[in-house]
Amino acid sequence: MTTRGRQAEAARNDLRLLRAAHEVFTTQGFDAPVSAIAKQAGVGMGSLYRRYRTKEELLQRLCLIAMERGVEAAEAGLAEPDPWEGLALYIRTCVGNRSGALAPVAGTIEVTAEMWGTARRADEAAERLVARAHEAGVLRSDVTTLDVSLLIEQFSRPAPGPPAPQHEHVKQRLLVIALDGLRAPGATALPGEPPTMEWYQGRWGTPP
Fold first, then answer.
1. Which pLDDT belongs to residue 3?
2. CA distances from 75 to 21, 44, 60, 84, 118 (A)
């Protein structure tokens, strides 16, 4: 096999590993053995350990990818001329990517400088989306960017029980209900003070 062929195969193996790891961790729990990931990906343990020396490295990579996808989703939303449609596209895309599914690992892994930097980019892009929707008067004024992030996190969780097509149908129904609940002016005042970014980031550690 040529060098290019080996590189292509390694890239395919890495993609299979990442997809399998995301599925295994978010359905079986983050204490699932890495052997389950290798089995689902259809690769040997040697291939896994050559790419990721520890489970923490694998989780760090998954988190980074989720953040990068969040940036892409926000930028796609900002490219939409209509402020509401842009915000709704961002939320739907993040839910479809299950961007918040890895939130339970907060505080259990070291957050790298690259992760913090990407998280800031994702937060800033989401802030612009929310600010634009507020300025247009289409997003209820008491909803914050962090409220939107936590909503995405809730919808990213896997449904209980074995996978079934009905789960996705139910999620999409509830997501439409939730999106309508974000629209201005809002029928019921939100209880208490909004969550703070300090609390949210504190789940992961102290940013540099």
1. 52
2. 26, 37, 23, 14, 13
